[in-house]
Amino acid sequence: MTSSHSHLAETDPAVAEAIAGEERRQEENLEMIASENHVSEAVMEAQGSVMTNKYAEGYPGERYYGGCQHMDTVENLAIDRAKELFGADHVNVQPHSGTQANMGVYFATLEPGDKIMSLDLNHGGHLSHGHHVNFSGQFYEVEQYGVDPETGYIDYDEVAARAAEFDPHMIVSGSSAYPREFDWERLGAIADDVGAYHLSDIAHITGLVAAGVHASPVDHADFVTGSTHKTIRAGRGGMILTTEEHADAVDKAIFPGGQGGPLMHNIAGKAVGFGEALEPDFVDYAERVVANAKTLVDVFTDAGIQPVSGGTDKHLLLLDLRESHPDLTGEDAEDALDDVGVTVNKNTVPGETRSPFVTSGIRIGTPALTTRGMGPDAMTTVGELIVERLNNPDDPDVASEVREEVDRLCAEFPVYE
Ligand SMILES: *Cc1c(COP(=O)(O)O)cnc(C)c1O
C-alpha cells in the first residue's frame, strides 16, 4: 500500500476505507482504460501537500495575494519544465482539466456563435470539441469531420473540402479514441487556407508527444491543449501551450476569465510529473506504451477481432466487435471483462448503429499496464486472456481461470511496491 493514511483512518474511517478499497482495486485489476495511468508516489505527495491551502490568483510574480513566493517557485518549475518538454514559447499550467484548457482557448479567441470544426465524437472526438451536451456545442456553431468508414483513417482531402465550405473560425484536431497518428502539418495548412485558428488537443497523447514518440503539433497549431494525467503521469489537470502572440489572451481567459484560484497542489504535482518526464527513461516508457499496444493488435487480429483502422500508432486501440462477436455489445464486453478484473470502456465505433450507452466496440489502452512494468510477454498474455473471455462471456469456468491469471499478473507487476 502507498501509505497508511493514519490520520484519515482515525478521523474519517468511511473515507479512509474507500481510499484503501481503491488502492486495492488498482493493485488487483488490470487498468486498461486508455485515459488512465498511475502517478508516482512523489506526484501524490506533492498533490497531498500544504499547497492546497494557498490562494494564488494571478501568475508568478503578479499575484493578488501575499505569501506566494513558494507558489511562484512551483508554478515556474511546472512552466519551465513543460516548455522544455514540448518546445513551446508560452505555457499555462493552471487549467483545472483538459476541458477547461479547451474552454480557455475558445474564450481567448472566439465569440459566441462563431464556427468550429472538429472530429465527430463517434469517430474519436471529445465532448469539449462541440458536442451538443457540452458548453462548446451550445456556444458555437459546430461542423464535424469523420474518418473514412472503409479505412478508419481521417480523410484529409475531405477535411479540406469541408473546411472550405464551412469556413470555420477554428479547426480542432486531436481525439479520445482515434488510434492513428495525426497529420498536424496538413491540419495546420488546412486551417491556414481558410483563415482559421488551429487548436490541437493532445489530451491523450501528451506523454507520447513529450517523448517524441508521436509527432508534435507545436509548430503547426496556434494552441495546443493537453491533460496531465493520461500518457504523462503528472496528476489530474490540464495545460495550454501557445505562442507569444496568444500568450496574454490565453492567460486572461484562464484567469480571471474562467477560473479563480489555481489548484496549487495540482500544479506542484504537474511540476513533479513533468520533471519525471524529462528523465531519459521516460522516452523508453513512451516507446514501450506504443509497442505494447501494437502487441495487443497482433493478438486480437490473430483471434479474428478487428481493430478500427487495422491497428494503432499510439497507446490505444479500438476493437470493433461487430464482425467477430455480432451478439456481444460494447457494454456486454466491458461487463464481461470487468468481472475478471480487466477494466476497459465500451466505445462507439465509426458507423456505429447502437446507442452510446450500448455501443459495438471497446477501447483498450496500455499506459497504466506499462507503468506497472509489463512488456511484450505479459501483454501477449493479457491480450489472450481478453480474447478468451470475449469468446466465452457466459462461461463461469473460463471466468475463474482468467481471473486467476489476472491475479497472478497483478501480483507479479505491483503498481506501488
Ligand atoms: C480526456 C480528454 C480531454 C480532457 O478531459 P478532462 O476530463 O476535462 O481533463 C480533452 N480532450 C480530449 C480529446 C480528451 O481525450
UniProtKB/TrEMBL annotation:
Main location as per UniProt: cytoplasm
Site (Plays an important role in substrate specificity) residue list: H229
Matches recorded under SUPFAM superfamilies: PLP-dependent transferases
EC numbers, comma separated: 2.1.2.1
Pathway(s) of this molecule: One-carbon metabolism; tetrahydrofolate interconversion; Amino-acid biosynthesis; glycine biosynthesis; glycine from L-serine: step 1/1
Keywords: Amino-acid biosynthesis, Cytoplasm, Methyltransferase, One-carbon metabolism, Pyridoxal phosphate, Transferase
Entry GO CC: cytoplasm
GO BP annotations, alphabetical order: glycine biosynthetic process from serine; methylation; tetrahydrofolate interconversion
Function recorded in the entry: Catalyzes the reversible interconversion of serine and glycine with tetrahydrofolate (THF) serving as the one-carbon carrier. Also exhibits THF-independent aldolase activity toward beta-hydroxyamino acids, producing glycine and aldehydes, via a retro-aldol mechanism.
Name assigned to this protein: Serine hydroxymethyltransferase
Name of the coding gene: glyA
